[in-house]
Amino acid sequence: MPLRLIFMGTPDFSVPTLLELVAHGHEIAAVYTRAPKPGGRRGLLLQPTPVEEAARKLGVPVLTPKTLKTEEALAEFSAFEADAAVVVAYGMILPQAILDAPKLGCYNLHASLLPRWRGAAPINRAIMAGDAESGVMVMKMDVGLDTGDVAMAERLAITDGMTALDLHDRLSRLGADLMVRAMAALARGGLQLRKQSEEGVTYAAKIDKAEARIDWSKPAREVLRHIHGLSPFPGAWAELENSRVKILRCELGQGSGAPGAVLDDQLTIACGEGAIRIIELQREGKGRMQAADFLRGTPLKAGARFN
Predict the structure, then answer these.
(1) What averages of pLDDT result for each successive group of 10 residues across the chain (307 residues)?
(2) Which of 80, 212, 268, 296: disulfide with 29, CB 3.0–4.6 Å?
(3) Pairing of strands 4-9, 27-32
(4) Is the peptide bond between 232 and the residue preceding it cis, with omega within 30 degrees of 0?
């Protein structure tokens, strides 16, 4: 039995869930997303969010309130008479009155294995911490920060070759399927909830650009995970010949030397223990490129070093 839903989301990550809910016959009464922001080459054009763009194509009403804490916002939300709300990376706190408005509740898709990595940047933090796995979970929302009861989960192994974008894209697709199954269970009255564990709670703080500089004194695998956890945005970086270089993809390499030293003509860079080999990078003000292309245009002198 299809549900009447309000969908709340903003970035690319959210779009597959919206599309899958529609494809499975659920009625989307309205889409809530963040307001358009200035963009374009000169920052003069207002850029709608990816969710708004998708909703417009579907012909679904789109709302972009600045707050949900007013009586007017609650009245507008309640007037849709939704069975439930689905929330995927919306980016705005839902007050208790909003959470209570749909008769079956509000359900969030979160990109971690809760209670690990509650908060804003679970995909980045899981990679940066060296986690062996990540996943997606559907939880019934409460007023806490990702503290609600969990309904369903899917797990996914994290390999050393995965960047944050790679994991983002896989979890986005996995999460869309999971939310569709959760809403099907909710519609037939069979969605089971369980309390989150009080053990193993960690918080995925928003990424600060100050974290992006590479510390070559760390072991190679930590350096690799740091690089991949910040790729492509904001991008882990180091200085080479007084120019900032973002490193976007790498692999574990062979050799040793002073941290940051270039060890060979394959862009193998020494770390505190071991080495990494750069696969893809981006010079300041330039596009991303493969290491071989970079080396053709930027021959490195003997003793070159990333700082």
Answers:
(1) 96 98 98 90 83 98 97 98 98 96 98 97 98 98 96 98 98 98 97 96 96 98 98 97 95 97 95 98 94 90 87
(2) 80
(3) parallel
(4) yes
